[in-house]
Amino acid sequence: MNNEQLSIAHCSLFITHCPLLMTTNLQPGDRLRNRYKIMGFIGAGGMGTVYLADDNRLDGRRCAIKEIVLQPNLSEQVVEGVRKQFHQEASTLARLDHPGLPKVSDYFSIEQRDYLVMDFVAGQNLLEIASEARRQTRFLDLLTVMDWMDQLCDTLVHLHSRRPPVLHRDIKPANIKLTPEGRLKLVDFGLVKPLDPNDPNTLTGLQGAGSLPYAPLEQYVDHLGHTDARSDLYALGATMYHLLTGNIPASAQERFIVPESLPPPQEINPDISPAMAQVILAAMAPHPKDRPASVAAWQQMLHSFDTTQPIEAGASSGADWPLSLRENWWLVGAAIVLLAASLWMTFGG
Questions:
Q1: Distinct helix (H) and strand (E) counts, the chain
Q2: What is the per-residue pLDDT across 242-270, written as a single tens digit (0 to 9) for each?
Q3: Nearest Cα residue to 53 out of 30, 37, 35, 29
Q4: Which residues are catalytic?
Q5: pLDDT digits (tens, 9 = 90+) for 200-249
Q6: 315, 302 contact by CB (below 8 A)
Q7: Count of CB atoms within 10 A of residue 152's CB?
Q8: Does residue 272 carry a pLDDT above 90?
Q9: Cα–Cα distance for residue pair 44/125, rounded to 1 Å
Q10: Cβ–Cβ contacts within 10 Å for residue 342, how many?
Q11: Which of 98, 99, 215, 277 could be stapled to 210 by a disulfide with Cβ–Cβ 3.0 to 4.6 Å?
């Protein structure tokens, strides 16, 4: 496998499964708008199919093209909702300019098929890197992971400081790319949501819940308006847990049923100090009010993990997990019902 093939193999956006979408038959050599030449297939999932393409107007520029094609016989309301979400993703990304984010350069439609053109991000994603370390029975370097967390925090602070704030809602190792230059890029904004209280009608609910091991409970009842920047923080903490332990974290629902299903990270990786483990678990507190107030606040805590000071109120270590869940039984109940409905719609409908 040559270097170009290796880059293609490692650029998958790993978007989640959704039964509303269908893949297309775009083949290498096909052209879109007389400008983009399809070079290969990158990945397919819940919010579209992604292809690698050459931009014929700019010599040497490679881009990723995301395509939305819905299954036939869907209701007009469903079609309108999915297309609205895809256009929202394009519009949101087009307004963002940060080294930790891919840049959108074009958006167009051809025969009811919508296309989003963005930077091609070469390199491996962090799931591949963590999986390789696990196969080699080793832990990732602590300082390296700390550097990655700093980069991700800076990117999320940028997103959350927009007006209105922008939530990613699907942060996980598979959606974080490490470029050959050592820069992290946060990709797959298929579930992106501008947090505008005056415009709650974004496409949320079952297909917007995110990836189970990294999603907080409140994201499964997002239509009630309970998600905010602390929801992305939960996913960031779960991502750090995975990277440092090599284990995919237990989901919020599993932790509710079996609280001990999430072992303290320092019991898995002895390089993690108890204080640092507290900081990781603070981000994964079951209720948003028990997490740090912002990603920036959590980042400050992360850099003081070697101190002996206890975690302050409002940043739970996770020890009060069962009590917090009992106090918020309605949130857990709604999440379980929605999860069951999602599984029925996907596999039994």
A1: 11, 11
A2: 999 999 999 988 998 898 999 999 999 99
A3: 37
A4: 170
A5: 333 333 344 457 899 998 887 755 557 789 999 999 999 999 999 999 99
A6: no
A7: 22
A8: yes
A9: 16
A10: 16
A11: 215
Examine the domain organization and report whether 112 and 129 are in the same domain: no
CATH number at residue 56: 3.30.200.20
Locate 247 and state its tokens: 């284990």
Same domain, 108 and 129: no
Six-digit token string for 2: 């040559």
pLDDT above 80 for 160: yes
What is the Cα Rg of the chain in Å?
Answer: 20
What is the dihedral sign for C-alpha 124, 126, 128, 130? positive
Structure tokens at 127: 């799931």
Instruction: Evaluate whether 242 touches 304 at the Cβ level (below 8 Å).
Output: no
Q: In what order do the strands lie in the sheet with 176-178?
A: 124-125, 176-178, 184-186
Q: Is 283 exposed, middle or buried (0-12, 13-18, 19+ CB in 10 A)?
A: buried
- Joined together, the tokens standing for residue 156 give 């999320």
310 with 178, same domain: the answer is: yes
The Cα angle at residue 53 between residues 52 and 55, in degrees rounded to 5? 150
> What is residue 302's three-state secondary structure?
helix
Q: Residue 84 has what pLDDT?
A: 81
What residues does 211 pair with on adjacent strands? Answer: none
**Structural domain tally of the chain?**
2
Q: Output the domain CATH number for residue 281.
A: 1.10.510.10
258: amino acid identity, one letter: V
Contact 169, 219 (CB under 8 A): yes
